[in-house]
Amino acid sequence: MIVRYLLLISLCFIHCAGAQKHITQIPDTLKGRDFDYLFDRIEDSISEGQRTIYLLTFLIKAKSEKNWEELSNAYKNYVHYAPDRLKLVYADSMVLAAKKSNDDEIIGSAYLSKGIAYYGQKRLKEAMDIYLIADQYVKKTGDNYLIYKTRYHIAQIKYYLGFYEEAIEIFKDCLNYFKRGNVRAYLNSLHSLGVCYNMVGNHGLCTSVNETGIAEGIRTGNFDMEPYFTHSEGVNQFMIHNYPIAIKKIQSSLSGIRKNKDFANETVGYFYIGKSYWELGEKGKAVAFFKKVDRAYTERDYCRPDIREAYEFLISYYKEKKMASTHLFYVERLLEVDKKLHLTYAYLQGKIRKEYDTQELVQDQKKLKRSLDLRKYNDLIAFSLTGTMFIFVTFVIVRFFKNKKEARLKYEELLQKIKDSEKAKENKTEETDFPISRDSEAAVMQSLQKFEKSRKFLEKDLKLAKLAVYCGTNTKYLSQIIARHRNKKFNEYINDLKIQNIAQRIRNEKHLRNYTNEALAEEAGFSSTRRFVNAFLNSAKITPKYFIEELQKEAAGE
């Protein structure tokens, strides 16, 4: 922070010195011009040299007149056109000038622009903090445009942190407001809404929004957002397994996105092109695109929890190729990426189960290093099994059989749950302070039992509110009844029902044992393979793979 303010003071000094140095070089025709004229020239300048003159003239004029609003705007101009390393320094100057105006609208607008500068560098935590400060000021102004603009940017952070439902509601509000008179803001809101629909699995609505966005752009003559709607639809097509279409759409969108120097969406595009090729079995092509995701990280320090999976594919690829050095390189890179993601996406990290958890990666890293060291020093390979080694090996063997025994016990527990599922007894614990009448409670329980028997829990992404409507009660009472009679929170309750059902089906329907985890996830009513595997592990304490293997052993008489 001290370094930033020292740099800020230095820049102010440079501007003052620069003003004295260049004042005679500013054309006389500009001396009587107002701020609107200068701003238009800044926007319309063809060359960097021309823009520099107009930027400096705007700044000098605002300073000499002690016009704090325009001085704040002068620094905002610099924030827009300055290189990334200086944007936040100018943003501090912008906020300082705005505060001197004592005007909530000017201060709120300055904070909003500072937040956007942070967001442009994908420093999302800092951006969110600044947006919330901006929100406190703009709420006092009655300026609806500024209020909705701030809400839009807050919704963007919510989207990146994984709060998709909350973001959707805000984007809908922004859409209704901006539709009345701001075409670009309307199209931006429309695009963001479509992306959120994709993330919650509503692919039909996503396509509809993308088509509307392209049509509205054509109708209004605003084509800047067309590549983004095409890009969004490409990702959407990937989600519904139309991989060739996904590749074609995303590739066609990238030139427009590169033109805007939007490295973030460009990187996301590379990831989904790579993943599409991977699903099509063209792993060599996929790896080339995953390496572009890695380049965005090394050159831009950019990664997101969803595209971190590129490293998992790279690890898998080089492990399969037995290229230990490259395998190790990407294991260590993923460990590094995960540390940074944990800081930025703390909220989202708890929602995503990674195929390679940190402990597994660390162990993999150690094994690979050990393997490479042994290759380099072949003369050290031949060693005798000393007492220490014997103890170590004994420990490993004991540990192996202990883990195997524990897994077997978990498997037997799951089988017992399946056998007893129809005989499960409800918890009849008396609670004198339970806030629901016995009649109401009994009615809800009857609906809940009907819900379980009809297997309506297989619906993907079932919400508590929807189940509450089905049971004829509200979400608060339903949560309390589930906790009282099933001893679980809502999500755990639904996931356990799904896992018990699919486990029972796998046991009784032998053809399901040949299904992939992706296919089993679909059968079980989960919206993604990861959620299914994670839920199975949480509920049964063993993986679906282990469960199926044990069933097959029993079937073979082992």
TrEMBL record:
Residues 458-550 form the HTH araC/xylS-type domain. Keywords: Coiled coil, Membrane, Transmembrane, Transmembrane helix. Residues 404-468 form a coiled coil. The chain crosses the membrane at residues 380-401. InterPro entries: HTH_AraC, TPR-like_helical_dom_sf. It comes from the Bacteria. PROSITE patterns: HTH_ARAC_FAMILY_2. Signal peptide: none annotated. GO terms for molecular function: DNA-binding transcription factor activity; sequence-specific DNA binding. This is AraC family transcriptional regulator. It comes from Flavobacterium potami.
